[in-house]
């Protein structure tokens, strides 16, 4: 199944509730929540109080992308805010195996994100423990950046690695994803797509529908 995960980072923060309602009604299933600490990435976004508050206004899957150093420190708090999936960066975790186990013990789905320059081979041993791998297609930290083309090959290699092992791990792509390039990513083997500016710039309902139309074409509906 192909899934759209709008990134709240590009939403209009003065009316978060109604923006969330709009994309949910339009058919988005995941809500991608970018938590940034100003250390792992240059920028600071939002954290626990925001997650907790918006949890009450939607049933969408909360997909929390932790762009923070030592994410272990926050796993329980993030889960308590209603996260369904917690994604940590490979580059931020010295003891990645321990961190992934901690996420699973918390009872939520576990994912690992790879920066553009980090090879998929770095996940060779942890892959069977993961529900999802996030392939970053921009350098993390900001919305609205240009898609890095070589990441398509990373998706292809990762899908091959997953299939070779008989796994069913989701592949998410995040950064510069649009309704125009999402087809290439589907063909490469990704199935969950984060989109910030491509959803919230202009009319979010129309933009969500544009993604869903592409998904339906590939799903043969
Ligand atoms: C970037 C974040 C993304 C960002 C994507 O570091 O992880 O989720 O919001 O925004 P767009 O789709 O505009 O590149
Ligand atoms: Zn993200």
Describe the structure.
The chain has 221 residues and is of the alpha/beta class. It is built from eight helices and eight strands; from the N terminus they run βαβαβαβαββαβαβαα. The protein has a single domain (3-219), classed as Aldolase class I (TIM Barrel). Strand 7 (170-174), helix 6 and strand 8 form a beta-alpha-beta unit. The protein is globular, with a radius of gyration of 16 Å. The model has no long low-confidence stretch (mean pLDDT 98). Zinc ion binds next to strand 2. Zinc ion is lined by residues 7, 32, 34, 65, 174, 194.
Low-confidence stretches: none
At CATH level 3, the topology is TIM Barrel
Strand order of the largest sheet: 1-8-7-6-5-4-3-2
Topology pattern, helix = H, strand = E: EHEHEHEHEEHEHEHH
The CATH architecture: Alpha-Beta Barrel
Q: For the CA atoms, what is the radius of gyration?
A: 16 Å
Shape: globular
The CATH class turns out to be Alpha Beta
| Total number of domains | 1
């Amino acid at each position: 199944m192909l899934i759209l995960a709008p990134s709240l980072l590009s939403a209009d923060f003065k009316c978060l509730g109604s923006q969330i309602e709009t994309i949910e009604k339009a058919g988005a299933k995941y809500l991608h929540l970018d938590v940034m600490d100003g250390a792992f990435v240059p920028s600071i976004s939002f954290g626990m109080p925001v997650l907790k508050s918006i949890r009450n206004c939607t049933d969408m899957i909360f997909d929390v992308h932790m762009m923070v150093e030592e994410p272990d420190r926050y796993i329980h708090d993030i889960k308590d805010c209603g996260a369904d999936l917690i994604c940590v960066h490979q580059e931020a975790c010295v003891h990645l195996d321990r961190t992934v186990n901690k996420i699973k013990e918390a009872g939520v789905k576990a994912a690992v994100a790879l920066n553009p320059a980090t090879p998929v081979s770095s996940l060779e041993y942890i892959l069977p423990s993961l529900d999802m791998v996030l392939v970053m297609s921009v350098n993390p930290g900001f919305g609205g950046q240009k898609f890095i083309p070589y990441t398509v090959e990373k998706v292809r290699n990762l899908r091959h690695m997953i299939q070779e092992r008989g796994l069913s791990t989701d592949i998410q792509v995040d950064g510069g994803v649009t309704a125009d390039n999402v087809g290439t990513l589907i063909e490469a083997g990704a199935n969950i797509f984060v989109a910030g500016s491509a959803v919230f710039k202009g009319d979010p309902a129309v933009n969500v529908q544009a993604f869903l139309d592409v998904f339906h074409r590939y799903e043969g509906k």
